[in-house]
Specification:
- Helix 1 (12-36) packs antiparallel against helix 2, helix 1 runs parallel beside helix 5 and helix 2 (46-73) packs antiparallel against helix 5 (147-170).
- By secondary structure, the chain is mostly helical.
- The protein is 75% helix and 0% strand.
- The model has no long low-confidence stretch (mean pLDDT 86).
- The protein has one domain.
């Protein structure tokens, strides 16, 4: 049994540092995917290019959010609304990334995608989760201002990047 004075929770700085390391690793995996493909990126199908964009976007965004959070944690005394600010910025940036990726997805020629239903289902499923996470960011920025709600955005982005990496490795080029 642990002593009553032991705190088993992770501090925000630790959580952000670990998430940043994972995001950097995922961005590096994008390079691995590109290197092991036979053709150059410019010869990839539109859906494979979208998957690469999603992998990179969902790796770079959480890295940037982690760095923002760690930067604000260095301010002494710590600003009272730090997690409100972070969630507000996460909301705006995530919304911009989502709009951009949706534009790319809608430009895809459905006849060229043999697994169109699965690709569309996955895109919209993660899109719905993304909307929920983004609404949480808005709620956190407006009312709560707690770390864990801001961190849900980072965790969602990292999980989405992991999923895209797995799909790019396991699926044959389309």
């Amino acid at each position: 049994m642990l002593p009553a004075t032991t705190n088993n929770t992770m501090e925000p700085g630790e959580a952000l540092g670990i998430a940043a390391q994972i995001a950097v690793a995922l961005a590096g995996f994008a390079g691995v995917v590109v290197v092991f493909r036979r053709e150059s990126v410019h010869e990839w199908s539109a859906v494979d290019k979208l998957r690469l964009r999603l992998l990179l976007g969902n790796s770079i965004l959480p890295l940037g959010l982690c760095m923002l959070g760690m930067l604000l944690l260095t301010i002494k005394p710590m600003p009272a609304g730090i997690w409100r600010w972070c969630s507000g910025i996460a909301f705006v940036v995530s919304l911009l990334v989502a709009v951009t990726m949706t534009k790319y997805f809608r430009r895809l020629d459905v006849r060229q995608i043999p697994r169109e239903r699965a690709t569309g289902f996955v895109f919209y499923l993660f899109g719905m989760f993304g909307i929920a996470v983004n609404l949480l960011q808005l709620y956190n920025a407006a009312l709560l201002g707690v770390f864990w709600l801001f961190f849900t955005c980072i965790v969602f982005q990292v999980i989405t990047a992991l999923f895209q990496f797995a799909r790019m490795i396991l699926l044959l080029p389309e």
